[in-house]
Amino acid sequence: MFKKILIANRGEIACRVMRTARRLGIATVAVHSEADRDALHVEMADEAVCIGPPPATESYLRADRIVRAALDTGAEAVHPGYGFLSENAAFARRLAREGIVFIGPGARAIAAMGDKIKAKRLALGAGVSIIPGPAEAIGDARAAVRAAKRLGYPVMLKAAAGGGGRGMRIARSDAEVRDGLRSAAREAKASFGDGRIFIETYVERPRHIEIQVLADSHASIVHLGERECSIQRRHQKIIEEAPSPFIDADTRAAMGEQAVALARAAGYVSAGTVEFVVDEERNFYFLEMNTRLQVEHPVTELITGLDLVEQMIVIAAGEKLAFSQADLRLDGWAVEARVYAEDPLRGFLPSVGRLVAYAEPAEDGGVRVDSGVHEGGEISIHYDPLIAKVIAHGADRDTAIERLRGALDTFRIRGVSNNICFLAAVAGHPGFGAGDINTGFIDEAYPDGFHASDVPHDDPALLAAVAVSMHRAYTERGARIGGQVPGHPPTIPDAWVALIGDERFAVTAAPTDGGFDVVVDDEPYQVRTDWSLAQPLFRAVINGVAVTLQVERAGAGYRIIHSGLDVDVLVLTRQAARHQTKMPAKKRRQTSRHLLSPMPGLLRSVAVAVGQEVQAGEELAVVEAMKMENVLRAARDGTVAAVHARPGDQVALDQPIIEFAGKSR
């Protein structure tokens, strides 16, 4: 077994690998950019080496610097995590030349599977079901249109290299093929240094289901069942689970056999994942093979009892798998939600900044949290916006989902926008609960984008009851410390008005043993709690049901987060509430003449010039943030009056990029 390994990654996955290494008694070396000098993975490691400036191209993607760090620290092996150099065959070869073990598959298998065109040909030869489409790169837009017409619309344009949803576009017309080919190739070139695109039939309403495999160097290969990864946005997985609510035993066995056959044909050694798309009749087709540890691997770990990082290390050390296919059993159900630094209410735009407050859910009752950040840490523009993964395990799917929802209710993040409200909404959606999902689920459930109105609370009066209970406690504290006139005890009102958006609730709250007796619009709420002032979590039993809400003071009211809903509750005396209705509405800032950057990022391109006439929908600029391109388009027709930023500039949130003449915009 190895005595010291280097983790060639950052964030959550670096910390994840270190936890297993520590349990196995293996010393760890972290590498980090200058931006990550104070990151959690650096703190956790036994040694740390700075490998360059913040941009990944100058640090985490610099194989030469990582190899030098391994040699200088005496690391015997390197675990690449996922992303960055994890599927880089040249990196694996370079380590081998230096006598350093790559904790992953051999370079030949990485190269074969990393090129999706070659992988498709290999899968066909191994008897694996493949999606119809030519196993070759598309030369130009004209050839792409011809191929699309032969296959029939819709089609999928897909990068030959890389993964993670980058360089992928669905096209339903000739025009969309031309536009999609250009943007997919540009994104693939920027992300993977390879702009080749191929085309294949797009399976309508597909499920994205993958099979986890493990293979050792002694010819043993097993599969660990499937993961359902159909809840996606822009081809990025959001919520995953194992097993799938759709796959039956026969289909699982058939998919597992094909995954093992492909791994064997590729000479595969280590952990890997064979991904399939599955149609509504359970016909399945090979999509790609990921030659690395997957982000969603924890759900497989929880239902199999295996530590996949440990298995990778053991296999890399030359040991045999300690079990066979017949030994493997699936236990219960696991669901994972990815917590990202992004704003669902602003089109999921990335968010950067400092984690002013950060508190993870407790890891008990079947809940696990994999993260790579800490309070006070920085979410950087340079890297993926993943903050953490929340994974819940239960005896059945309903139990696992309920535990996931409870954990999300207690996950407290302040300082950057995050998608917890969105995750909670999806986890509570009836369609998700019924297992009626496909890769278009999010678009179907939220066709006009995600809005606060998409997460109505089951009982908004309960929020009013909690807010007024808190307000009553704060009012009592204020009366105690404000001084008293002898013979004149302070008068504390019992009657209040709670305002939640356009809703008004008449509330009374009286303290009692163990909490408050509250009445909201004539409905009683027994609030039993030991909550004390300034605690961020309000844990209570309300009318006999245990609930946990995130709470904080917000001016004259309270911010409450529960079941995906994030609202401000204004608590007023009844007289103040009558006056409040007469307050004028605040005027919004006029920005219609400007194209503003929707996020902090790098301005990749500006497609217009001063004096140019533009039409609604026309591309104006491209802003890149957190490894994703965001194309900004004209909202309406207009004339460019000024361009305030140039390609290569770092732009801030809401920074003007383009100004338009007159009032036409």
CATH architecture of the largest domain: 2-Layer Sandwich
Helix percent band: 25-40%
Q: What fraction strand?
A: 25-35%
- Global structural class: alpha+beta
User: How many strands in all?
Assistant: 38
Low-confidence stretches: none
**Broad CATH class of the largest domain:** Alpha Beta
* Main beta-sheet strand count, sense and barrel state: 8 strands, antiparallel
Distance between the termini: 65 Å
Arrangement of strands in the largest sheet? 13-12-9-10-11-14-21-19
> Count of helical segments?
17
Q: If you consult CATH, what is the topology of the largest domain?
A: D-amino Acid Aminotransferase, Chain A, domain 1
Mean pLDDT: 92
Counting structural domains, the number is 6
What sort of overall outline do the alpha carbons produce when their principal axes are compared? globular
The CATH superfamily of the largest domain is known as ATP-grasp fold, B domain
Say what oligomer this is: single chain
CA-atom Rg in angstroms: 27 Å
